[in-house]
Structures are given as C-alpha cells and as structure tokens.
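User: Can you recover a sequence for this backbone? Please restate the input before giving your answer.

Assistant: Of course. Working from this structure:
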C-alpha cells in the first residue's frame, strides 16, 4: 500500500494532534512494562516486545530524517537501506529494558521537537521513503501516527484499537481499503462500518461477502490484528474471511 504523495488522509493540523497523542499513548504503555515483559512475544510474528520498541525508536529517527530533509532541503534518507533498517531493529532489541525505554523517550522527544521547526513552506517539500518515491512532507507526521497507535497495540499490553481516536480509525480504514484496490487476486469483500462509512468493494470478481462491524473491530481485522472478532459476515456459516495482506 502506498501513501498518497501529496497529502495525508486528514488535515495537517488534525494530524499533528493525533501525532502528539500517539507519542503519549506509546510511551505510557511502554513505561507500564516491567523489565521481564520486554522478552515476551508481541502481536507481530517473530518479534518480541523489545523488537517493537526498537522499531518505533528507529522509525522516529527515520521519519525525523525526512522532516530534517524538508526543513533544510538537504537530502536525508529515512534509512540507508531496507537491510540496514532490519539490522538496526534487531541490534536495538538486544538492549536492556532501561536502555530501550530511555531511547524510545529520547527519540520521541527528538521527532516531536522537529515538527514545530518546519515553516509552512517546508510542509510542501517532497521526500522519499523506502516504499514510496514521492511523499509530501505533510504525510510524514501521519506515517508516525500509524506507527505509534498500531504498534503500541502490538506490544500486547492493555492497549486496544477502540482506544484510538475515532478520526485516526476512520482515516486508517479508508487508507487501508484504498491500498487494497490492487488486490484483484483476493476474495471479493464488501466492507462497511456500522452507522458510518462504506460499503467498500475490495478483492477480485464474483459475489462479495459482506463484512460489517464497529470501526475499531473493522480496522483491527483489516490490519490482520484480529480474525474478525465483533464483525458480522454473510459468508458461509457467518465466518469472517481473511482480508488481503496490508503491507
């Protein structure tokens, strides 16, 4: 799935509110972890909680590089390569719990301090991520919003999708659905949010299976974080099918 190259899915002012809230959400749940908790599995296959925390620290650095690029006009890549990114996450995950906590706080403070430094014209700059050759600087805070809110839930603590701001949930659903537009080989689905958005048609040809539910449950399912808990389906036996893979 690609990030829109010109604008984030919500206005920048609104996005920056979610950005700050996401940092607080992540750090609050991080600080609630005991030292022994870092070695436990996260919700991401093959990753411990330490890997998730390490990833979020490296993501703050990488997205901070893009904001610096927009601010200075000097090309500052997000990461040297996909391989170096993976290696840095793995190495960072071997730090002690105290080091992981301290780094996460430091990196969060650094990227939050960069945002108010950008003058209005800098937000119109174009930068490059590992996935997308053309990304507006306006989209960079949204990239961090997605990371902090979703990966905090991946820490497998008390964080839940329903704790996310409704505006973030709604924007992410629309964004993920748009990203599924090219998933022509996936099972046909008709997705809708109860009392709100939709329906959206995704997948290949054929009679679609309708899947409906609350916004938080729909998002968790679309992101592969839930098998469809809380959703309704008109498929065989009422089973909720698996959506296309996101990212």
């Amino acid at each position: 799935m690609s990030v829109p190259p010109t604008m984030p899915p919500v206005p920048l002012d609104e996005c920056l509110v979610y950005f700050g809230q996401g940092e607080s959400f992540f750090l609050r749940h991080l600080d609630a972890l005991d030292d022994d908790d870092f070695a436990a599995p996260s919700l991401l296959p093959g990753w411990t909680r330490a890997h998730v925390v390490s990833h979020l620290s490296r993501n703050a650095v990488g997205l901070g590089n893009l904001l610096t690029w927009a601010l200075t006009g000097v090309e500052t890549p997000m990461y040297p390569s996909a391989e170096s990114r993976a290696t840095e996450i793995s190495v960072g995950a071997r730090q002690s719990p105290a080091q992981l906590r301290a780094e996460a706080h430091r990196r969060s403070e650094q990227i939050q301090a960069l945002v108010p430094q950008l003058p209005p014209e800098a937000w119109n700059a174009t930068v490059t991520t590992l996935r997308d050759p053309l990304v507006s600087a306006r989209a960079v805070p949204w990239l961090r919003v997605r990371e902090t809110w979703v990966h905090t839930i991946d820490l497998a603590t008390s964080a839940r999708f329903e704790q996310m701001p409704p505006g973030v949930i709604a924007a992410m659903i629309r964004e993920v659905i748009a990203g599924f537009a090219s998933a022509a080989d996936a099972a046909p689905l008709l997705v809708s949010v109860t009392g709100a958005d939709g329906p959206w048609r995704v997948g290949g040809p054929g009679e679609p299976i309708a899947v409906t539910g609350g916004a938080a449950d729909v998002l968790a399912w679309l992101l592969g974080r839930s098998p469809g808990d809380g959703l309704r389906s008109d498929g065989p036996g009422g089973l909720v099918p698996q959506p296309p893979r996101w990212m």
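That completes the design. Confidence is low (pLDDT under 50) at residues 1-5.
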